[in-house]
Amino acid sequence: xxxxxxxxxxxxxxxxxxxxxxxxxxxxxxxxxxxxxxxxxxxxxxxxxxxxxxxxxxxxxxxxxxxxxx
Length: 70
What we know:
Blueprint: E1 4-12, H1 15-19, H2 27-41, E2 45-52, E3 55-63
């Protein structure tokens, strides 16, 4: 049976993009993509993403490694 561990993180948005409309509006999207990719590279699978007032809440899961029989 697979056992899972879970992680919930908050990714804050950039106030610069909100306060300075002349800056690329996709700046925050890049910030979220970069953060989510870092967790993915560490073996975490995104299972939930929810926008919040100042950012987004992301929930991840990954299988717990079974202890080796050395």
